[in-house]
Write a structure and sequence with these properties.
Blueprint (H helix, E strand, L loop, with lengths): L2 H22 L11 H6 L8 E6 L16 E2 L5 E6 L3 E6 L5 E5 L1 E5 L4 E6 L2 E5 L11 E4 L1 E5 L8 E2 L8 E4 L4
Parallel strand pairs: 1-3, 2-12
Antiparallel strand pairs: 3-8, 4-7, 4-10, 5-8, 6-7, 9-12, 10-11
């Protein structure tokens, strides 16, 4: 993907995420410092197994500058740990059934997505046990925007092995 096209795609993705998150998250009248989104994303069940996905910089080894993020197969009841070893990353998962477990900040959730920010730390999301069944694998292509701290104004789209990164949820059997 050429650099001008990639930059346009990145800006469009971030703008869409902010636009949807802003319309989905309205202040709660009883708690002005909290939003409906923050209340909706907390989950009480714990994942039975957690897969680790690391967002890290690869200085001078890859033209993108980021270590590729491989696809991961996540069964119902399992989680995904996003470890951010750089300054900051935004993760947008376009599936409203995915649940927050812990970590991260600035969580936003709507019917069609969940988004969150991780700064030099980690966050865990999970595929709930009651995730809708399917006759085939469900592939969720998610987006990660990151910056490595050397240039706080430069955000990059972090690709997977075959971009974009993805979660594969197999059918229940």
């Amino acid at each position: 993907m050429s650099s001008p096209f990639r930059n346009t795609f990145v800006v469009a993705t971030l703008f869409l995420a902010v636009l949807v998150a802003g319309s989905a998250c309205q202040p709660c009248p009883e708690k002005s410092e909290q939003t409906e989104c923050e209340q909706d994303v907390t989950v009480t069940e714990e994942p039975v197994f957690v897969h680790n996905r690391v967002v890290e910089s690869m200085k001078m080894t890859d033209r993108t500058g980021w270590k590729p993020i491989k696809p991961v197969t996540v069964r119902r009841g399992e989680g995904v740990l996003f470890s951010v070893e750089v300054d900051t990353a935004w993760i947008v998962i376009p599936d409203g059934n995915i649940k927050k477990v812990f970590g991260g900040t600035e969580w936003a959730k709507a019917k069609s997505f969940i988004a969150f920010k991780v700064e030099n730390g980690s966050a865990v999301v999970m595929v709930p046990k009651d995730y809708p069944d399917s006759d085939f694998d469900v592939e969720i292509h998610y987006s990660i925007m990151a910056r490595d701290g050397t240039d706080s104004s430069k955000w990059d789209y972090v690709h997977g092995e075959n971009p974009p990164p993805r979660m594969i949820i197999p059918p229940q059997r």
